Amino acid sequence: MTETTTPASVPATGAERPRNPQRNRPQGQPQRTREVHPALEKLFELYPKLFGAHFLPLKLGAFQDLLAAHPEAFKKDELKVALGLHARSTRYLECVAAGHPRHNLQGEPVEPVAPEHVHHAIMEVFRRRQARSKEDLRPHVRARLMEAIEASGLSREAYAECIRTQDEVSTALLDEAFAELAAQAAKREALMRAFEASGKTEAEFADMYGMNPAEVGHTLERVRAARQA
Predict the structure, then answer these.
(1) Which residue ranges make up each domain of the chain?
(2) Which residues are registered as beta bridge partners of 102?
């Protein structure tokens, strides 16, 4: 009697399970989609400008405002869960990272997002996207950090104190962002010194070096503002 063996790559019993069940889905059968919290659906109906296709940062205290405005529409615990899901979503973090101001329920900007909230949103979006991407996204996040630092108007020491990061990746990216900002500031200062030594008007100076007059004027104005700060 000859013993038969089953190849290791083939299951010993039953038919082989398809690797991609979606390919064998009968036509017309809908794909399973992630359920949306009922309170979020209601928020979308009531405030499409805030919870619609494009999210906007919510003002602090929006939870209490929603309960006061719609006491019959929302249960406190369910609304708290829904807003937590909303605030942790990548789309919401992205709008915070972009530096958009916070908005009230009427969709009006009412206050800026704190620098530490912008910073942590930038880093969280970066972590999520980097985990799914083979591309090195550090140059992109470094540029966003530079924009956030400049928008905050804080010194390096004040910014570091504000965000209080202890994560090695965040610290390294922040150091790189500050180093690049310092290098750019040094170049602007060097341009200003060359302009001051030239005795030329801004237009003449730009023409002498083949530079865009508008860009030269903008750069010199930034240096003047920095000197007065």
Answers:
(1) 36-113
(2) 111
For the segment 57-78, the average pLDDT, to the nearest whole number, is 96
Report the SS3 class of residue 100: coil
Q: Tell me if the pTM is above 0.85.
A: no
In this prediction, residue 167 has a pLDDT band, given cuts at 50, 70 and 90, of: confident
104 vs 20: which has the higher pLDDT? 104
The Cα 191–Cα 37 span in angstroms is 55
Exposure b/e, 15-40, CB count within 10 A at least 16 = b: eeeeeeeeeeeeeeeeeeeeeebebb
Task: Please give the CATH superfamily to which domain 36-113 belongs.
Answer: ProQ/FinO domain (1.10.1710.10)
pLDDT at 19 over 90: no
C-alpha separations of 73 from 81, 119, 120 in Å: 15, 34, 32
